[in-house]
Every structure is written in C-alpha cells, then in structure tokens.
C-alpha cells in the first residue's frame, strides 16, 4: 500500500488549532488497509505538529465509518491492524474528537471509542447510527469494542448492543453514554470543529477510555451470567455470540491490555469459523441480487399509486407493505362482503401494532387515508402499477388481466402474485404483454423480505427495473427469476420436499426429519411448515398435477391420507402434529405414525433407520441439485440468487450462506458423489444436474459463477 493511496483516502487539513482528519473512501468509508495506514499517518502528523492542539476525525459522504472492509476478511492481513490504529488514536497526547454522522458501525464505532470525545449528529436525513453489528457477520468487535464499550456504557448495555447487532440512534447513544454530545445538523466537520474548539477553550484533558473503570463489577458479572444463559438458548448454533460474552467478561475480570489480547484471540477464532464465511456471503449476496442486466438498459417508471386486486391473505399483506412504503393503494375485490373483509385484514395488522404500542392511532388514520376500497375496476384507471392477488386459477387470472388491460392507463405496470402459474400465458391475455411481470411475495407479505421478480419473455426492461425499484421502497430483498413451474423458490422446494417424503416412506419418521432439519439450523422442519401453511394447499396442488404426473415417478401418498381425514395442520388442530387447544407447538401423533406404517406396508417397504446426518445429506443434495439446474437454465442469474431466495424466503440458516454456498463449503465433489450414490436407488428422481458435473470436472465451484456474472 503506497503512502499516496493512504493520503488519497485519509486527508488532513489544519483548521485553526484543530487538525481535521477526513476519510474519503466511498461508498461507506470502510477501514481498508489504505484508510488504516492513512489514519496512522494522520495521528503521527498530529502528534508532531506544533499547530495542532486537537484532532477531529470525520467521514466524508454519507457515513462516518461503516466498519472494517468486509471484503478483506479471509484475505492475508495487511498492516497496520485496526486494534493498533485505535491504540494509536487513544494514545494521542492531544484531545481527539470524533464527529459522527450516518453510520458508525463495527470498526467505525471502535475508532470513535478510541477517540477521547465523541459527538453525534441527528437530522432527518443523516442521523447517526452507532452500533457493533459484527455478530451479523459471524464475528465480534475486534478492535477494542468489547473492552471500551463496557467502560463507557456499562457491561450489560454494551453486551446487549453487540449481541443484538442493531444500531443506536444519536439520541439513544447519548443516553447510553456512548457519545458526549448529540447536536442537530448534517455537517460533521462544522459541528466537530465547534465542539473541539469548545473543549480547547475549557482546556479539556486527554481522556482515554481504556483508563475508565468498569462500574459495579460483581453486578456486571451477574448480568453477564444471565445474558450467557439467555444467549445459549436463543443463538441456535451461532458461534460468535458466546465469544462476545467471553470477551466482555474479560473486560470485567482482566486489565485492559489482557482483555484486548483475549478479544484478539477470540476474534481470530470467529474469523476462522465457517459461519463467518456463510454470513459474509449472505451480506454481499443480498446486495448483488439487484444488479440485473435490465438495470443497465432502462430507468424505472414513476410509481406513486398502486392497486391490489384481491384482499385475501396475500392482497392484504401486499397492501400493508405498500402503505408502509408511503404509497397510495386502491384495493379491488369481487363484492362488498369481500372488500369489507379485505379492508379488515389490512386494519387488523395496524390494530395489532397499536395493541403492542408500536403504532399510534393517528399514524394508523394517516396511513389508511392512503387506502381506497373498491369493487369496481374503474377505480384503478389512473394507478401506476397493479398487483393481482386473486385465486390461483389461470382462467380467473386471465379474466382479471383482460379487465386491467381495458381500464388501466397506458404505461401502467401489470403484475401478478401467482405462485406457480405461467406468467407468459397471463401476459398473452392482454394487448400489452410488455407491461406484465411477476411479483411473487411470500406470506405474510408485510413481513417476509423476499420478493421474487419473475421476468416473462415479452416484458420491457423498464418494467423490470420498476419492479426492483418498488422492492427497494418496500424494503424487500428482490431476486430476479425466469418463468418456470414454481420459479426459483417453489420449484426447488417441491424437489427437496419430495426427498423428505421419500425419507419418511423409507423409514425416517416425520418428526426425526424435522428434528434433523432444525438441528441444521432451520427454525422449522418441512412437516412443521406444511402444518403451518396448511396441508390443503399442497393437496390441491398435488391433485391439480395428478393428470400430468410422470407415472414412472415415485409418489408418496402419506400426506394425502392425512388430508383425506381433514387434518390440514394448525388451522384444523392437527396435521402431521397434534396442536392441543390451538397451541402452535405441535406434538408427535402416534396415529400419523400408524398411517406412515400402513403406507409402507402397502408398498412392501421395510423401513430402515437414518441418522440426522444421512437425512440432511439427501435433503440438501436434492436442494443443491435442483438449484444447479435452475442456474443452468437461467431461471436464476447466479447461484447467489438461489442462496438469497432460500435465506430470505424459506428459512435456510443464514450462517450457512444458502444452499449453493453451503455446497461450496462442503465441496461439490462430495455432493456429486452423494447424488450418484442415491441415484442407484432412484435414477429418475436423482437425475444429476449437468452443471454440477461440469463444475466438479473443471475443479470450480458455484462461487466462480457468482464472480463471472
Ligand atoms: N466493507 C465493505 N463494503 C461495504 C461495507 C463494509 N463494511 N459496508 C457496506 N459496504 C458496501 C456494500 O457492499 C455496497 O456495495 C455499498 O457499500 C453500499 O452498501 C474489526 C470486524 C453501512 C448501513 O457490518 O450495514 O468492523 O453493492 O448497499 O443500504 O470490529 O452497508 O454498492 O458494491 O448496504 O446505505 C462491521 C455493514 C464490519 C456494516 C449502509 N460493519 N454495512 O447501508 O448501503 S466488521 C458492518 C451496512 C468490523 C471490526 C469488525 C450497510 C450500511 P455495492 P449498502 P446502505
Ligand atoms: P385468498 O383466497 O386468501 O384471496 C384471494 C382473494 O381474491 C379473495 O379475497 C377473493 O375474493 C379475491 N378475488 C377472486 N377473484 C377476484 C376477482 N376477479 N376480482 C377481485 N378479487 C377477486 O388467496 P391468497 O392466499 O391471498 O392467494 C392469492 C394469490 O397469491 C394466489 O395466486 C396464490 O397462489 C398467491 N400466493 C399465495 C401465497 C400464500 O402463502 N397464501 C404466497 C404467495 C403467493
């Protein structure tokens, strides 16, 4: 790293008695090697300067410092280390002030904590966000955060800040003792200079955080014990949370430098953990899915008012999501009774928030002012975009799109929320197929982050970019998908769910399979998910597909037997599990096991046992194999799009990075060998994805395709 490079990202200028050190490393002033070197050089300059009586550190652009440069993790370390930079800042013999606007996260906050005084700006646009979110990346604060934050804000509050991974506002940071001042404004340099000069005028001393004592150590240790127990229960296999607690304990029990050494050692353990690789992959993958070919071709169309057709489960959730994004919404239903139900579904969400104290009545009223209910399609003639969420029936949807084609203004985007149906066929029902697109939300649509944006053959590029822009406004994670049965998510789901059914018929109980999947890190197993979503939905899909099902393909009838009894899951009090008195925690049901045994006997299957590891090898091999086909066919642009789909829509454990990333970490050759093994039993189901074979043959992995895109 050259001195010039360092000087280009960290600049200094003397302003009166203050040496202003400003960081220019867009987009978020990440603490890459050049920035670290630049900061060190700036501190040496300040120390040597006769003019500088104080030092002010600010970030240029939208943030103070958003942390270490995450792209450097896993690469060879380049000196100086961030702990050394922070130690140098803290050791400065002249007061060092950090003026924070925007993000001060991770290493960014640690730089501020090593300064002697901190000021945070608050404003509508550039309010400071102060946090130590390393846990979200499988890491811990590795530049003194675990030792300095407890000294400033107390042990319990500091540990909770690190374990929660969520930032504090300027006001909350002031109340917590993380900053000394909180001022209105957007210009950190001006505010920082004013503060620095005020401190100089008061002859304010150098004040090193490392020298502060931990308040009430005994009580602090008791708090940590309680937090440790709670974290062990909640962290579901995550590695770094417990390491954070160990570090904070060291801050209480050990002198500062020994605490720092402990932090370093545990930081390195987290760095080496595969969870770090999975979580960092997830971080960047979620930011890559918006980088689509159409983005270079066309700007989005303006969208201020939308319409939602259908006010059922999805229509209501989509309406709430749009209202929360500040849009106006016209909801259209078939008749007065249905629209009343639709409006009630929307209001129920806000009433729930009010009951929890998370929304005030006036705010609900203001939001509902942007909602219009109607039973006439004429009400949507002026909207910019329509989202259809009516029954999952092709003829019903075609009729709706014909009506939309008649009433909507030219240039309106016409979207369908279908889960499986052919969007090219829906588009063909209109005279404007270029304006038709798939917007596949997930239930509950106002909560679930994933939005599959399904791109039919004739859609115009600016309709695709309009959909991505809408996703951003709705704070959704968009994934571009091609048209096929089930797009990316539901198509792959159908295959690994089938693998689970085969495992059940071959000898593993549905409860063992669910336990293995939870053990892998999922919140729920596939049979619990079926009971939650309602077994009747899958049953209807299976019945619809019966006519076209390959007669040679193995078909497991266990779920049909259960549905024939009206056992649809939580909504009927039993499904694969029993739900006494409406509880959501299901209990294994011996009658279900009897049905499973009867179906095995009917097929002459002698059950065999499966270890959790064997169950997961088949479950994941089915997922990865179909994922490879989806990428190979171009239904997904890159393997990372498959990962993001499953991380944000299907509960795949985030610390594993998604199915394709997981496959890379396990080794594609291992997955390939498994599939070849399984194919000996059922060659029709386990048809190998050519892409998987090709990558193994070329010694490549899925990530090589992410980079190539
Ligand atoms: N390193 C590298 N790149 C980063 C980055 C970082 N820390 N933060 C953001 N980017 C990139 C991002 O990939 C995207 O790139 C662009 O910046 C804009 O980001 C030792 C170990 C700051 C709240 O976890 O939470 O410090 O896609 O789209 O919505 O203790 O980015 O344009 O090419 O997200 O306005 C701890 C991570 C690091 C904060 C801004 N810090 N960043 O959100 O923009 S670990 C974090 C964020 C650490 C030390 C440890 C958000 C943001 P591209 P964006 P945004
Ligand atoms: P739902 O049965 O809860 O709601 C459908 C609504 O559409 C009903 O209120 C009905 O009155 C209304 N409707 C029917 N025909 C209409 C017409 N011609 N004009 C206006 N309104 C009409 O169904 P849902 O679960 O909300 O599913 C809606 C769509 O979303 C389906 O295509 C489904 O596949 C898809 N989807 C569902 C889920 C889910 O988990 N439920 C998830 C993703 C996508």
How do the strands and helices of this protein lay out in sequence?
Layout: H1 3-9, E1 10-15, E2 18-23, H2 33-48, E3 54-59, H3 82-91, E4 96-100, E5 103-105, H4 107-114, E6 117-122, E7 129-131, H5 145-153, H6 155-164, E8 168-169, H7 170-176, E9 181-184, H8 188-201, H9 217-234, H10 240-253, H11 256-272, H12 274-288, E10 305-309, H13 313-324, E11 328-332, H14 336-355, H15 361-368, E12 371-374, E13 385-388, H16 394-407, E14 413-416, H17 423-428, E15 436-441, E16 450-455, H18 461-473, E17 477-482, H19 489-506, H20 510-520, H21 526-533, H22 535-546, H23 558-564, E18 577-578, E19 587-588, H24 590-603, H25 612-632, H26 639-649, H27 659-666, H28 668-679, H29 690-697, H30 702-708
Parallel strand pairs: 2-3, 3-4, 4-6, 5-7, 6-9, 10-11, 10-13, 11-12, 13-14, 14-15, 16-17
Antiparallel strand pairs: 1-2, 7-8, 15-16, 18-19
Helix pairs in contact: 1-2, 2-3, 3-4, 5-6, 5-10, 6-9, 6-10, 9-10, 10-11, 12-26, 13-14, 19-25, 20-25, 25-28
The structure holds (2S,3S)-3-hydroxy-2-methylbutanoyl-COA and nicotinamide-adenine-dinucleotide (NAD).
(2S,3S)-3-hydroxy-2-methylbutanoyl-COA is lined by residues 27-28, 30, 63, 66-71, 82, 103, 105-107, 110, 133-134, 137, 139, 141-143, 145, 284, 287.
């Amino acid at each position: 790293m050259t001195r010039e490079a360092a000087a280009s990202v960290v600049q200094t200028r003397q302003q009166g008695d203050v040496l202003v050190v400003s960081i220019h490393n867009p987009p978020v002033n990440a603490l890459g090697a050049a920035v670290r070197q630049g900061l060190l050089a700036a501190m040496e300059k300040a120390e040597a300067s006769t003019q500088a009586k104080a030092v002010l550190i600010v970030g240029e652009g939208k943030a103070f410092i958003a942390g270490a440069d995450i792209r450097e993790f896993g690469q060879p370390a380049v000196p100086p280390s961030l702990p050394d930079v922070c130690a140098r800042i803290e050791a400065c013999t002249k007061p060092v002030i950090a003026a924070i606007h925007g993000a001060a996260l991770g290493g960014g906050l640690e730089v501020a904590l090593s300064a002697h005084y901190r000021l945070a700006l608050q404003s509508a646009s550039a309010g400071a966000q102060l946090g130590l979110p390393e846990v979200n990346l499988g890491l811990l604060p590795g530049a003194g955060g675990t030792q300095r934050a407890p000294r400033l804000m107390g042990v319990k509050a500091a540990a909770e800040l690190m374990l929660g991974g969520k930032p504090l506002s300027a006001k909350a940071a002031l109340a917590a003792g993380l900053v000394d001042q909180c001022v209105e404004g957007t210009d950190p340099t001006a505010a920082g200079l004013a503060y620095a000069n005020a401190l100089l005028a008061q002859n304010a001393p150098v004040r090193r955080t490392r020298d502060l004592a931990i308040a009430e150590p005994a009580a602090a240790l008791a708090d940590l014990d309680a937090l440790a127990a709670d974290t062990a229960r909640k962290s579901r296999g995550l590695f770094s949370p417990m390491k954070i607690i160990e570090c904070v304990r060291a801050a209480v029990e050990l002198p500062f430098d020994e605490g720092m050494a402990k932090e370093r050692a545990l930081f390195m353990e987290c760095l080496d953990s595969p969870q770090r690789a999975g979580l960092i992959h997830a971080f960047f993958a979620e930011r890559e899915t918006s980088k689509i070919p159409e983005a270079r071709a066309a700007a989005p169309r303006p969208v201020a008012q939308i319409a939602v057709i259908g006010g059922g489960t999805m229509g209501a959730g989509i309406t709430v999501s749009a209202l929360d994004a500040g849009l106006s919404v016209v909801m259209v239903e078939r008749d007065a009774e249905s629209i009343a139900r639709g409006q009630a579904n929307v209001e129920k969400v806000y009433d729930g928030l009010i009951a929890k104290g998370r929304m005030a009545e006036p705010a609900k009223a203001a939001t509902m002012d942007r909602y219009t209910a109607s039973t006439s399609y004429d009400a949507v003639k002026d909207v910019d975009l329509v989202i259809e969420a009516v029954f999952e029936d092709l003829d019903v949807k075609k009729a709706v799109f014909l009506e939309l084609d008649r009433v909507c203004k030219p240039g309106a985007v016409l979207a369908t929320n279908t889960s499986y149906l052919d969007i090219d066929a829906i588009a063909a029902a209109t005279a404007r197929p270029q304006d038709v697109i798939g917007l596949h939300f997930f239930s509950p649509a106002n909560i679930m982050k994933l939005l599959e944006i399904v791109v039919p053959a004739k859609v115009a590029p600016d309709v695709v970019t309009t959909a991505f822009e809408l996703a951003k406004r709705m704070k959704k994670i968009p994934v571009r998908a091609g048209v096929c049965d089930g797009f990316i998510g539901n198509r792959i789901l159908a295959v690994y769910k089938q693998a689970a059914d085969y495992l059940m018929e071959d000898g593993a109980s549905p409860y063992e399979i669910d336990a293995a999947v939870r053990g892998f890190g999922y919140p729920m197993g596939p049979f619990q998910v079926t009971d939650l979503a309602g077994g009747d939905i899958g049953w209807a899909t299976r019945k619809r597909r019966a006519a076209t099902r390959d007669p040679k393909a193995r078909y497991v009838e266990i779920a049909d037997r259960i549905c024939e009894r009206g056992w649809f899951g939580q909504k009927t009090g039993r499904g694969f599990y029993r739900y006494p008195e409406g509880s959501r925690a299901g209990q294994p049901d011996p009658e279900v096991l009897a049905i499973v045994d009867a179906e095995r006997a009917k097929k002459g299957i002698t059950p065999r046992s499966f270890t959790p590891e064997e169950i997961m090898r088949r479950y994941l091999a089915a997922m990865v194999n179909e994922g490879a086909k989806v990428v190979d066919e171009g239904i997904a642009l890159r393997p990372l799009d498959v990962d993001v789909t499953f991380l944000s829509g299907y509960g795949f454990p985030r610390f594993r990075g998604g199915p394709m990333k997981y496959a890379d970490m396990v080794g594609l050759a291992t997955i390939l060998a498994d599939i070849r093994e399984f194919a000996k039993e059922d060659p029709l189901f386990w048809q190998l994805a050519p892409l998987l074979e090709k990558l193994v043959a070329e010694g490549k992995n899925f990530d090589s395709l992410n980079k190539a895109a």
